Amino acid sequence: MELSSMDPCLHDQFAEIEQRHWWFQGRRAVLTSVLREQLGHDTGPTSERRIFDAGCGTGEMIDMLRAFGSVSAIDPSPVAVRRCVDRFDGTVDVRCGELPRDLPPSGCDMVTAFDVLEHLDDDLGALQAIHAVLPDGGVVAITVPAYAFLWGQHDVINGHRRRYRARQIRGLLEASGFQVDRLTYFNTLLFPIVVLVRVSRRLRSRGAIDPASDFAMPKPAVNRLLLAVFSVEARLLGRASLPFGVSILAVGRKPPRAR
Description:
- The protein is α/β, with parallel strands linked by helices and 259 residues long.
- It has nine helices and seven strands.
- A seven-stranded mixed beta sheet has the order 3-2-1-4-5-7-6, sandwiched between helices.
- The radius of gyration is 18 Å and the shape is globular.
């Protein structure tokens, strides 16, 4: 299963709402907080860090990543790539490509794969390929959906192959040669609500696939409330990892070779 198996209409939907939807905004806040903690002071537009975003979609995370270095990216969907080219007016190198086949052979200091591994048949192979192109000390940052019992229509519509537990992600990263610098669940405070929505939707649908995804734009007041709750986690994650949640965030580092 490849990311290109996602319905192209979903890329259009995401592009329209990702600047305003509480989930996208909250995820950006969480990732910004954790990456700032992990990457230290070498951040900002003058940083020489070279970042490769594998599976960039319509570019939601590229703006955030540009605060940490120069960014190039791939995505298997021509629709998503066209969106990115228009969005960044040629200032970001975005091309059609797939993980792991189209990773750069070298020349990047960090590879990101946000909500990508769950689409792939060989998630371990993808992480091993990322490890191979990174220099010693290079960083990988990933997010994935959590818990198989949360599987629902959203996963089917988005072409997911699986959902994960934190220990599985740790095992994959370590088996690929990375040391795990940070591993946490997130979207924790809203976890009970998400469970109720997913279970009730599963009972109502009885196997039928509703073309609506979880990313329908809520009413403005609801959107603001959910964003306010989700954004609290950006501060919490500066102090501790969270024990459960709807998603998992991991940062790994390629250790130096023994001499």
